[in-house]
């Protein structure tokens, strides 16, 4: 049994992932280890972005393997009760230009292996059009593209036994309050069914 709880925070663009992770840092401090988003590290470091299928494959392979190494490093080096991952490995499947079988064959992993990397998955839906944030320089998606990507990410994570979906809310702070309540319930060892019934 792991001595820590590992949670992947995922979802469509402008779902509130960064805001939630910052709030978790403030609330839990040294009890919480953050695994940064691999894609942001690579893109900010100059990794090129092209849209043809070959380039997408190369990009997602780089993100996938960087993410694996980051997660393994952080969980090894920190003795924390909560490990929060800014996105998870199966997010790459949502960006993959071919089918899922091709993805798993290319990455030499199985869906079950990747699902098992995370005790919990929290999916934050993309914000409504009125609240869609375009200030992030790494975010290139239009609102419609973000909605489509949000659904692909949901599909990528299908089958995880403790995946919780937090829907977009016209009141962003309410969405964040709900998200924090979910994390506290997870740390209190509530079941997924209990959390869905009591909070979501």
Structure, explained:
By secondary structure, the protein is of the alpha/beta class. The protein has helices spanning 17-28, 38-44, 53-77, 91-95, 100-107, 111-115, 143-156, 172-187, 192-198; strands at residues 5-11, 32-35, 82-86, 120-124, 163-166. The protein has one domain: Rossmann fold. It contains 9 helices and 5 strands, in the order E-H-E-H-H-E-H-H-H-E-H-E-H-H. It has a 5-stranded parallel sheet with strand order 2-3-1-4-5, with helices on both faces. Helix 7 (143-156) links the parallel strand 4 (120-124) and strand 5. The model has no long low-confidence stretch (mean pLDDT 94).
List keywords for this structure.
200 residues, Rossmann fold, 9 helices, globular, 5-stranded parallel beta sheet, alpha/beta, 50% helix
Mean pLDDT across residues: 94
Shape: globular
Note the total helix count: 9
Please compute the radius of gyration using only Cα atoms.
Answer: 16 Å
Secondary-structure arrangement, i.e. CATH architecture = 3-Layer(aba) Sandwich
- Assigned CATH class: Alpha Beta
Name given to the CATH homologous superfamily: P-loop containing nucleotide triphosphate hydrolases
Which percent bin holds the helix content? 40-55%
Helix/strand order, N-terminal first: EHEHHEHHHEHEHH
CATH topology: Rossmann fold
For the largest beta sheet, what order do the strands appear in spatially? Answer: 2-3-1-4-5
Whole-number total of structural domains:
1
What does the main sheet amount to?
5 strands, parallel
Portion in beta strands: 5-15%
- Distance between the amino and carboxyl termini: 27 Å
Tally of DSSP β-strands: 5
